[in-house]
Amino acid sequence: MDAAIAPVIDMKLPWVAVVGNHDQEDKVYMNYYPRQNEPAPGMAFFHIPLPEFSSFTSNNFTGVKQEEISSPSINSGFFYTMLEAGDVKAAFVGHDHINDFCGKLNGIHLCYAGGSGYHAYGKAGWS
């Protein structure tokens, strides 16, 4: 098992001790934990896109928009809440299976995760 995760151990990542089998937990892979001087950036993952996803045009996003945004008709204010929190850098959604794009709005990346697998609808010829 050590050989399998040796490259990760060499990177001295603090979470490496929990990689692999739990029967290895007593083995110490690191003898220090680097100090974190600032909070980690926040990311949000949810299924239904926020109404703000509709604000993107072909000029201000990267990727492909192949169907309409299916967001709620009532804006809950969740995007504003993420802005107020100040640490959220990105939000990822699904729901519209053949959309696969990211745009940045007020400093927050809003991204579709794209479709994967064969168990949901798709678009003929799209790979």
Q: Cα distance, first to last residue?
A: 36 Å
How many domains? Answer: 2
Broad shape? extended
Please write the string of helix (H) and strand (E) elements.
HEEHEEE
Strand percentage lies at 15-25%
Taking all Cα atoms into account, the compactness measure Rg is 20 Å
What does this structure look like?
It is a single chain. The protein is of the alpha/beta class and 127 residues long. It has two domains: 1-34, no CATH class; 42-112, no CATH class. It has helices at 2-10, 78-85; strands spanning 42-45, 61-64, 88-93, 100-105, 108-112. The protein has a five-stranded mixed β-sheet, with helices on one face.
Sum this structure up briefly.
The protein has 127 residues and is α/β, with parallel strands linked by helices.
List keywords for this structure.
127 residues; alpha/beta; 2 domains; 5-stranded mixed β-sheet; 2 helices; 20% strand; Metallo-depent_PP-like; Putative inactive purple acid phosphatase 29; hydrolase activity, acting on ester bonds
SSE inventory with pairings:
Elements: H1 2-10, E1 42-45, E2 61-64, H2 78-85, E3 88-93, E4 100-105, E5 108-112
Parallel strand pairs: 1-3, 3-5
Antiparallel strand pairs: 2-4, 4-5
